[in-house]
Each structure stands twice: as C-alpha cells, then as structure tokens.
Amino acid sequence: MAVSGKSGDSEEMCPYRLVLEHVTSRWGVLVLIELLERPYRFSELRRAVNAYGGRGVSEKMLTQTLQTLERDGLVHRDAKPVIPPRVDYSLTGLGCEAAERVRGLAQWTEDRMGDVERARAAYDERRRPHEEAREIQSRAS
Amino acid sequence: MAVSGKSGDSEEMCPYRLVLEHVTSRWGVLVLIELLERPYRFSELRRAVNAYGGRGVSEKMLTQTLQTLERDGLVHRDAKPVIPPRVDYSLTGLGCEAAERVRGLAQWTEDRMGDVERARAAYDERRRPHEEAREIQSRAS
DNA sequence: CGGTATCCCGTCCGATACTG
DNA sequence: CAGTATCGGACGGGATACCG
C-alpha cells in the first residue's frame, strides 16, 4: 500500500517532480479543479469528475488520488464519525494555490482548442501518403 | 502508430482534455519546460530531460512525446536534409504559451516543496499505527 | 544522428468482494 | 456511504534491431 500517484516513485528523482506528477496526474488535475469550486463529498466528487466525459474515475483511483494529494498537504479530509459515514474533501491553502495554476492551464487548453485542432488537421494532411487518383479510377469504368 | 500521449484516447471525451493530458504528460511537461529555454536537437533534448534524475526518457518515448506535441501545434520540428541528419525542435507561439504555464506550475512545486514535505511528515506520523514499547522489550533482556 | 518497427515485461487501473 | 484487499487484463514504455 502507501500508494503514490504515478509510475516511477520507487526510483530516486528530485522530489518536486513527484509532487508535480501528483498534481498533473490524470485524476489529480480534475480533482483539484473541482475542489476549487467548493468542497465535495466522496461520491459527489466522483460524479463531478465523471461529468467530464470519457471513461470516468473508479472509486479506487479516486481514493488513491485523494490520499496522495492529502499526504502532500494539498487536500483536507474531514471524516465525520457518523453512520452512514460522511467525508468531506476540500483544498488547503497550499492546494488552492496549486489548483489555481492547474485550472489556468486547463482553461488555456479550452480557449486554444481551435488552434490545436487546426494544427492537427494541417499535420494529418501533410502526412497523408498520397491517396489521390482513386475516384479517377472509378470514373473510368 | 499515430501515437497519442496517454491512455484513454480511444474513448470519447471533451477534446481539450486530451490536449491537457498531452501537455501534462510525464515527458510532455519536461520537454515543454526545456524548450522554453532554447531550441534543442533530439539527443541534446534527451540529455537535458534525463538530467532531471530518476530514470530518464527513452528514445521511443521522447519521439512519441514530440510527435504528439507537434501534431497539437505546440512544437515545431525542423528537419535539415543533411548527412548526418540534424533535427531541431522549438516551441511555436502556441507552445510557448502552454510551456509558460507549465513552467509556472513546476516552479510552484519547487518553491513549495518545503511545505509539502512537512505535510507529508505530519501525515505519516498521524498514521503510524502505534510502534512504541519496542526498545523497552529489548532493554528487558 | 534521428528515427521506425517489433517484442515483451512491469505497472496502472478497473472489476469484484468484503468491512465499519 | 466510504472505503480496503485482491485479482487480472490492458497498456505504457524499455530493449533491441534495423533504415535513411
């Protein structure tokens, strides 16, 4: 156990790169952005993250992500001792600083999506390995 | 081929999340930061990225990362038709904008590393499941 | 040098079952 | 509801061999 967040944690590397990988991890990004809005309960957060489309986060990965971010001091976990259990997650001051930068980056990708898609179209066009002289064929018959 | 960058590309999701994952991918982050400094040749870039410690990037993954970023219009690839081959990589205007934000985030993790490490120590302490009364044992013998 | 193609192992992560 | 434990498939990504 004592999960970390991404891959090569076992190897030695400058420690801040680990934090960076936690923060930029697939689900870390979305969790931070959502928590910047307001505190969330576990399942609520899961639903919010899954609303982004694609295949959503599993309970396991959400737990793992939250634990990593909590350990790094970015997320605060408030477990109320009631039945049924209720756990609220929120950003710490530190986490808020990180989340703002992450949201900025996400916002940027959203804003520039048009440019990116045009670049992709151009790239794909440039690489297409000559596929003409096909409808000329079919016309001849 | 036509590699993407991370996992669930095959699934449908809001397209900007894909770009975000490319930009925040393990090697994408470091490549963007390095290219913000100056243009690099392939192997030179590989060495620069590997200088971050840990297990470095393989040729394959660097190629993959650069192709993805080039396709998204963030990186410019300049292949000079000489022998031996020489290929220079640099940021486009778009890529520069992205890289600046990524570098900001990386810089933040570096600056706040102290806080993070203190939070981790506290977290680990809090969780240590009572490991006293051990040296008392060894003393008794 | 700067790739591409192929193989294949380690890890991530989803599915499932169980606890408080 | 909010987890923890375990298993197994999928895929990220390293090693190697080979082109221009």
From TrEMBL, chains A, B:
The keyword Phosphoprotein does not apply. Keywords: DNA-binding, Transcription, Transcription regulation. One of its GO terms (molecular function) is DNA binding. Residues 14-117 form the HTH hxlR-type domain. The keyword Transcription regulation applies. Residues 121-141 are annotated as: Disordered. This is Transcriptional regulator.
